[in-house]
């Protein structure tokens, strides 16, 4: 079966505090988050800017979170104000996954990796989707 896998990586800077955390991470502080998204599909699709079936999805749709919060992204935001869950790296990855899924065609398998620091990262996918 033909398989295409897109890969993109981007960064955003944001502040957060982990609610309920008994330690310094419970105080407001910032990170330069790095994100990698892979998008795998067995078929190609049209996109907002291309009406023929020649893309898994537009790379632009995978990189929405890199935009400023005034444009619907997460850059230079306070994550506690932008996402409806406690903003651990795990929950940020899950949020980016779900938001991205809502923006791309059906039938694409996503994996979202979020680095909170150079040495700490999390991968999120959902085999049930
Ligand atoms: N599983 C998770 N653990 C922690 C998360 C998280 O999102 N998921 N987040 C934090 C804090 O946000 C913190 O900013 C990062 O903590 P840490 O890696 O400890 O950062 P430091 O670079 O300051 O490391 P030190 O070992 O404290 O020097 C914590 N845990
Ligand atoms: Zn933190």
TrEMBL record:
Could you say which cofactors this protein requires? Zn(2+)
Q: In which pathway does it act?
A: Purine metabolism; 7-cyano-7-deazaguanine biosynthesis
Protein name (record): 6-carboxy-5,6,7,8-tetrahydropterin synthase
According to its UniProt record, this protein's enzyme class is lyase
- From the UniProt record, list the coiled-coil ranges: none
Q: How is the cofactor bound?
A: Binds 1 zinc ion per subunit.
Q: Which reaction does it catalyse?
A: 7,8-dihydroneopterin 3'-triphosphate + H2O = 6-carboxy-5,6,7,8-tetrahydropterin + triphosphate + acetaldehyde + 2 H(+)
Give the EC number(s) listed in the UniProt record. Answer: 4.-.-.-
What the entry lists under SUPFAM superfamilies is as follows: Tetrahydrobiopterin biosynthesis enzymes-like
Give the organism the record lists.
Fodinibius salicampi
Tell me which family the UniProt entry assigns to this protein: Belongs to the PTPS family. QueD subfamily.
Alphabetized, the UniProt keywords read: Lyase, Metal-binding, Queuosine biosynthesis, Zinc
